[in-house]
């Protein structure tokens, strides 16, 4: 169980780093820029969560494994950047599993320090989504999840399920699997059926 | 007195959240994006202040009332977004009272931990202004207060008055009212008479 | 030695503040905007480092000297902004000495709390570079160091040297001079010979 979580964590980190490499190379950044964007995409959400709850030093400072993984992923990603478009489907899988795991981790940490249920869900969502938000800001784009992704809604639903099951005394391991699965299912269905959040804008506004 | 402060605090939160809704809907964000922008506009300044002084968890994690107010305001704001332009005048009042309160709160917290007077004024101004700054950055705009608003100057003046009156032993309650009023008066007069900071640019530069 | 470090620190602060003034006036910001950009450029990197390692309140809150220096530099910089282009060469010197010092300081602080060597180098680089990154984001630009500056690579090299010499027991004072010199030399040579990071993009991609 512990091992599976670690493997998923590593796959998630890789998927997030690659999404950073893709965005940064589109902006024609240099090596250093790409590395920073890959790092920020991977560790940004967890870092913001740690800052908000006052956990210091923030997690990635204490475990350089992830920094090595990100550096390696960036180098491999740059070399094979033209092939990346062909593996986007597999990347999507890693990425989705990654946000599911990050959501669950974020909610768990927030529950541990007895925050309000709504705040716990918010922290889970921040952990999963804000790496991508910071990536987009550093690339001078309006964050993509603010405009057309069902991404965040999947995290909110999964986070809420975790809080509810936790309230009814479900064991953390089973809870993590069920809530994580919900994130994966919603996100996958949303992409397959091209579901977006219902638009609040009338046609004349667009 | 306590009650009045709470009511002003809530009105300020609502006004800030609505300014977030207005900015986010202009950018055609989806529901989730609008909610994030509304939240960031409301709690961003206080969050940055808390991070800088090391207060953790940051305030809004410990009081979900504000999260509920922001969610509710966002929903109501989206439904009535076309009518929002007609109430901008009343919003302006809430907003101005809000920044006055945020300035005073920020300065008070900084004085409590014995920071230098200049730093106290800076923290009051950050509390009042940086929610809007983060809102504009997330919306991919240069922050409006860096370009044409007398906003920040009003906060600096009110913050400075608070520090001076505090130095002369004026009671916090009276001090808050006087300093807050100064913020409100400067901001209101600036808007009525369309005062901006004196331009440092010659005509040939613009 | 202590005095020299203080003088270099002040010169670095001035150089960073001026680079903020130059960027902000290009964007036609008002007085307040220019002041904020100058401040953020000067203290942004150290602030981010302090937040990440959990040092609070962050350094500049505890020493208002730097705030006064920044305010003064901003005023002088605005008055003489047309002349600034003629002194850019001297500014370059201060700026380079500044990033050398900031890199060394960042690495030293990270070593003190026993972080992994790679993380120490990362924190040194963040201290030196992220003031400029935040400046560019607030000005709605893609950070310049992500695209064409050898800036960050010089910091990484100097930071790595510091960690290595520290490992071999070299005294901090001598280590700081040697590692700082490496940053200065790489950056200066890079600018003189117009060296950039090798481009990862083929001509057809640009």
List keywords for this structure.
homotrimer; 206 residues; mainly alpha; globular; transmembrane helix (chains A, B, C); YadS protein (chains A, B, C); Gly_transporter (chains A, B, C)
Structural overview:
Chains A, B, C: Belongs to the UPF0126 family. Chains A, B, C: Keywords: Cell membrane, Membrane, Transmembrane, Transmembrane helix. Chains A, B, C: InterPro entries: Gly_transporter (IPR005115). 3 copies of one chain form a homotrimer. Chain A is mainly α and 206 residues long. Chain A has one domain. Chain A contains 8 helices and no strands. In chain A, helix 5 (88-112) runs antiparallel to helix 8 and helix 7 runs antiparallel to helix 8 (172-192). The longest helix of chain A has 25 residues, at 2-26. Chain A is globular, with a radius of gyration of 17 Å. The model of chain A has no long low-confidence stretch (mean pLDDT 88). At the A-B interface, helix 2, helix 6 and helix 7 of A face helix 2, helix 3 and helix 4 of B.
List the helices and strands and how they pair.
3 copies of one chain form a homotrimer.
Chain A: H1 2-26, H2 31-53, H3 59-62, H4 65-79, H5 88-112, H6 117-138, H7 151-167, H8 172-192
Helix pairs in contact in A: 1-2, 1-4, 1-5, 2-4, 2-6, 5-6, 5-7, 5-8, 6-7, 7-8
């Amino acid at each position: 169980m512990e091992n599976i979580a670690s493997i998923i964590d590593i796959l998630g980190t890789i998927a997030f780093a690659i999404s950073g490499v893709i965005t940064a190379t589109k902006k024609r950044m240099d090596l250093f820029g790409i590395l920073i964007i890959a790092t920020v995409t991977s560790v940004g959400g967890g870092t913001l969560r740690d800052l908000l709850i006052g956990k210091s030093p923030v997690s990635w400072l204490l475990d350089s494994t992830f920094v090595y993984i990100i550096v390696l992923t960036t180098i491999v990603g740059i070399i094979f950047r033209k092939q990346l478009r062909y593996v986007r489907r597999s990347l999507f899988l890693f990425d989705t599993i990654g946000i599911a795991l990050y959501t669950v981790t974020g909610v768990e940490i927030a529950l541990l320090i007895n925050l309000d249920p709504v705040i716990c869900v918010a922290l889970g969502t921040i952990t999963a989504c804000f790496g991508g938000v910071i990536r987009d800001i550093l690339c001078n784009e309006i964050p993509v999840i603010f405009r057309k992704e069902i991404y965040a809604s999947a995290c909110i639903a999964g986070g809420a399920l975790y809080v509810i099951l936790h309230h009814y005394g479900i064991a953390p391991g089973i809870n993590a699997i069920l809530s994580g699965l919900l994130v994966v299912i919603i996100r996958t269905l949303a992409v397959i059926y091209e579901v977006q959040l219902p638009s609040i804008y009338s046609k004349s506004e667009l």
